[in-house]
Amino acid sequence: MYRFLLSRQWVILTLVALLLIPTMIRLGIWQMHRYEERHARNQLVADALGARPVAVEKLTAPGHTVTTKERYRTVTAVGRFDTGHEVVVRRRVNSDEEVGFHVLTPFVLADGKVLLVNRGWIPSDGPSQTAFPKIPAPPSGRITVTGRLMPDETTEASGIKNLKGLPDRQVMLINSEQEARRLDARVLGGYIVQTTPEPKGDTPELIGKPGEENAPLNYAYALQWWLFAAGVPLGWVILARREARDRAAAQQKPAEAQAEPAGV
């Protein structure tokens, strides 16, 4: 009854099914690993954002590389903004995907060390982004700033090329080593994304908190692949039984046709 399973068509179909099952299982395992990675990153971000603010020099120093656990930690610093050495970071977008600049202002601490502060996003004055934009001044004098600690930007991590020959006071990446050479100063590793004080007139536009990665989506994809893997042998059995039933019915019809005259 099931000799048709040895036919070329069914041998190929069976081999394809046998290949699909482990492939789908492996894809499900990969999606589960992605879920675990994203869940872990979300937890790190949540823990960092929820941690008590600390003085910036407790977490970073000149030459320090900001670690994954230190990233997004809320830090405070007391000093003054040095707008004379302010630069803008090219090709940055805001929440509405508009292209403009990030404003990077050195913040001089009491001991002379410098903290790089990303004060937020501003639009460009024109489509070419070659002219230095008008930037609202930060508060003057000795103040306290608060922000989220971030690691130095690199081409490897961001995918942004660190172009040469840029217009005056424009950079592509926020990098403390690069800024230390430009300023000839002791610059703390990494930089902060300013959260307070809030700018007057909402300009520069403060950068929002990092969004949460959609880890449950990967979990759902993993279950989906495993359901597909379980469905392959079930589908194979259903197709085989249907084929056997159709073949049996096709064989039965000629027998019935031959039996009718004898019964008349």
UniProtKB/TrEMBL annotation:
Location relative to the cell: Cell membrane; Membrane
UniProt keyword Membrane, yes or no: yes
Tagged with keyword Nucleus: no
Pfam families, A to Z: SURF1
Main location class: membrane
Keywords: Cell membrane, Membrane, Transmembrane, Transmembrane helix
Protein name per the record: SURF1-like protein
Protein family membership: Belongs to the SURF1 family.
Domain of life from the UniProt record: Bacteria
Membrane topology: Multi-pass membrane protein
InterPro entries linked: Surf1/Shy1, Surf1/Surf4
Lineage: Bacteria, Bacillati, Actinomycetota, Actinomycetes, Kitasatosporales
PROSITE patterns in the cross-refs: SURF1
GO CC annotation: plasma membrane
